[in-house]
Design brief:
Strand content: 5-15%
Number of helices: 17
Structural class: alpha+beta
Largest sheet: 4 strands, mixed
Strand order of the largest sheet: 2-7-3-6
Radius of gyration: 27 Å
Helix content: 40-55%
Length: about 450
């Protein structure tokens, strides 16, 4: 059981909800010593962001270093969520942190990281660039940190207080269940500002758990501040393509707002909004402890196509210059193409780099893959007619003459390619022909 006892410097009086919500709140402050003890058990996995060194944490550090007596006034402090809060004598409280997804530092992660960095720097001369490394150091060296701090407790540098707010069930019948149901919503609201991306909020309530499971080998940044090389928004845009197909054939809930396929290129924010609206719909997912869990096997089958689409995107990016040249084009002469600049595939599924060019040229051809999908009624799933990620897929069979002629007609402008519906219509039709079907344009 992960529990910790900390001492509150001010009142530990419970504040109760006048609206009858079965959750209590304590507002107080703690000393650096209590923070050291708190960080032995508490993590910020419940927080939609992972703190890293930036101008915010540097400003907090400067306050602690230059005017620690003002820190209590200048900061909102730390918001702690705990499923169990027990009051002890001498203004102490015992807090539980057994479920990191529902208990821990819910807000104030940058404050926590900055204070932890400050303490470790002053005690040991060590510095950290992100929360995860700092937390690992804390776990490995807790006894040493505590011992050295106690030896230097009277150092004026440590004379600051940290405002804290503690949220916990009120011990009435059903309070723990209510805590589970609302804690993610409270956390999202506390962290909702212009710096927090919609993907981080979607991640907080479980919208991406299935994608995270099937794409676990990819370094995707699901949580703000995490390390990785692939933006979650780019992955979600790929996952939206089979969801778009489901919408086109009438297999998504009717009240899900229609997805504009151009958004896959022009508005990743709209891609995230569409994905979240599907994965949080009651017909697609159930809610457990305030988090969405996908229940629709049909939607799962759609998301299972995401990795294939990511692989196809990378492979197409590498092959498109050759395909363009094969249709009486001269790709290297396009102004926005940089043959002397090599770039790695967006999703890292191909080992080779490719000459740089704006990916607006290929987005319609990626979204057009809906024409290679089919609905299988007996299994209530969608499948590939022809898998574009297969090693047997022949790119040369895609009839690209019209598509490339259209690029020439709009002056080789990649943004116009990526934002013009007609390119998406032509791309989808090209794949129908590729799959051995009759063109829908004639």
């Amino acid at each position: 059981m992960s529990k910790i006892i900390i001492k509150l410097e001010q009142s530990n009086a419970l504040q109760t909800s006048k609206e009858g919500v079965k959750i209590n709140k304590i507002t107080s402050s703690i000393s650096p010593l209590s923070l050291i003890k708190l960080l032995k058990e508490a993590d910020n996995k419940i927080n939609p962001r992972t703190a890293t060194e930036n101008k915010v944490t540097r400003a907090i550090y400067e306050t602690l270093d230059k005017s620690p007596e003002l820190f209590w006034y200048k900061t909102k402090g730390i918001l702690i969520a705990t499923k169990e809060c027990r009051f002890l004598e001498r203004n102490r409280v015992e807090l539980s942190f057994n479920e990191p997804e529902f208990e821990g530092i819910m807000d104030g992660g940058h404050n926590t990281f900055a204070i932890a960095r400050f303490l470790i720097d002053k005690l040991f001369g060590e510095t950290f660039k992100d929360w995860n490394k700092c937390k690992a150091y804390w776990a490995d060296n807790y006894d040493t940190i505590l011992e050295k701090f106690n030896a230097e407790e009277n150092n004026p540098a440590y004379r600051f207080s940290v405002p804290v707010e503690i949220i916990c069930p009120n011990n009435e019948e059903g309070s723990v269940e209510e805590y589970y149901n609302v804690i993610s919503e409270i956390c999202s609201a506390r962290n909702s500002n212009v710096e927090l991306k919609a993907t981080a909020l979607g991640n907080q309530v479980g919208c991406y758990e299935y994608l995270k499971e099937i794409l676990q080998n990819y370094p995707i940044i699901w949580k703000t501040g995490e390390k990785g090389t692939i933006k979650s928004e780019d992955v979600i845009a790929m996952a939206d393509i089979p969801l778009l197909f489901l919408q086109q054939i009438g297999k998504l809930p009717k009240d899900v707002k229609s997805f504009n396929r151009v958004n896959a290129y022009s508005s990743k924010g709209q891609c995230v909004t569409f994905f979240n609206s599907v994965l949080s719909h009651e017909a697609v997912a159930s809610t457990e402890k305030g988090r969405f869990q996908i229940t629709s096997e049909l939607v799962k089958s759609a998301l299972d196509m995401t990795e294939d689409i990511m692989k196809y995107f990378d492979c197409l990016y590498q092959k498109f210059p050759t395909l363009y040249n094969a249709h009486q084009g001269s790709f290297g002469r396009i102004t926005s193409v940089k043959l002397d600049k090599e770039v790695n595939p967006l999703f890292g599924t191909q080992p080779k780099s490719a000459p740089y060019y704006p990916d607006g040229f290929i987005y319609p051809l990626v979204v057009g893959l809906t024409s290679l999908m089919t609905y299988d009624e007996p299994s209530n799933t969608i499948k590939w007619k022809v898998n574009p990620a297969s090693i047997d897929f022949d790119f040369n069979k895609i009839p690209l003459t019209k598509y490339i002629d259209m690029i020439k007609l709009i002056g080789y402008d990649p943004q116009k390619v990526g934002k013009t519906q007609l390119f998406y219509v032509e791309a989808a039709d090209a794949y129908r022909v590729c799959a051995g079907e009759t063109s829908s344009l004639f």
